[in-house]
Automatic annotation (TrEMBL):
<dbReference type="Pfam" id="PF04773">
    <property type="entry name" value="FecR"/>
</dbReference>
<feature type="transmembrane region" description="Helical">
    <location>
        <begin position="71"/>
        <end position="91"/>
    </location>
</feature>
<keyword id="KW-0812">Transmembrane</keyword>
<keyword id="KW-0472">Membrane</keyword>
<feature type="domain" description="FecR protein">
    <location>
        <begin position="153"/>
        <end position="247"/>
    </location>
</feature>
<dbReference type="InterPro" id="IPR012373">
    <property type="entry name" value="Ferrdict_sens_TM"/>
</dbReference>
<protein>
    <submittedName>
        <fullName>FecR family protein</fullName>
    </submittedName>
</protein>
<dbReference type="InterPro" id="IPR032508">
    <property type="entry name" value="FecR_C"/>
</dbReference>
<dbReference type="InterPro" id="IPR006860">
    <property type="entry name" value="FecR"/>
</dbReference>
<dbReference type="Pfam" id="PF16344">
    <property type="entry name" value="FecR_C"/>
</dbReference>
<feature type="domain" description="Protein FecR C-terminal">
    <location>
        <begin position="294"/>
        <end position="363"/>
    </location>
</feature>
<keyword id="KW-1133">Transmembrane helix</keyword>
Amino acid sequence: MTSEIISKYLSNEASEQEVQALFDWIEASDENKNQFIKAKKIWALTTLSSDLSIETAPVIQMQPKNKIRQYVQYAAIFLVFLGLGTTIFLLNKTTENPKEIVLELGDGRLEYLSGKAQTALLNDKGELIAKKFPNEIVYFGKVADQKVIYNTLSVPYGKRFKLKLSDGTIVSLNSGTSLRYPEQFGLNGNRDVYLTGEAFFEVAKDKMHPFIVHANQADIEVLGTTFNVSAYPENPTVNSTLIEGSIRMSEAANSTNVILLEPNQMATWQNNSKKLAVKEVDPAFYVAWTKGELAFKDTPFSIIAKIIQRTYDVEIINENSDLAKQNFTGTIKISESSVENILDLLKRDTPFNYSIDQKTITITNPR
């Protein structure tokens, strides 16, 4: 295997045939695998040194002079460890949110979707399964039911991503969201996906194969429709808002505990009481995030703070009791607003002070 093909692969410039040939070569022997890891280390360090002047210069300038060398050293180690794969990532995943979009393949391999180039995903036969773009993955085809392989896509705070599943269903994933889904749906049976976080679904119609979203303790079943599901693990509820079509939301452990939704309705599952409720809503409010907006309607600040944390990848500590009791209404364009802009806007209604230390925001009483 030539170093040229390895270099092209690491730079996301290799063709489908070259990628498959590289994978075959890596799996052929431990020696090849070790050689590839060594080449990946060298590539990572070379990339870091060439990018330091552009990407990390502001950070270095903020450090005391005697810490500059230490910072560069740690940055290099981190980048190399990131490239080594599953073990290092899993050891750190429980203590810190990853800052890149991570695709975990069915065989346990991890891919970090940070490259700008288009790449291809092939199966063990060299057949095209999906095309990966900077902000989207598009899947193709179906397989026999016993050959269904599940992938998991995890989107960190501060980012969003889009999937087109192999049946044509389009899924938009919000910040802090994870979706487990079939690489290719089976020829028979249901179309099952598993959601943690928030996603907007545009489900391809297929009456013979119901599409089911498993979200915490609730299941949402559809035949073909558009709807939003919010199921963040820190929230005591699962909300499903229907835009068009029809869906059925039920308790995962008891399918007889069920509610049918019509457009412009939202179903809410209460984790503690095991109850389902439905109400009329303006769906535009609940899908504003898919258009790059944050929409609030008489929303408590505690909820707004969680949304800001996920959207901008920050931590908010609120020590202002008056602010904690306030509700707010409004719409904010994410691309045009910083966290400071939003906080300054909220201060007009309820005075408070805040300080920012790196990514931690502390809100206190006004002086």
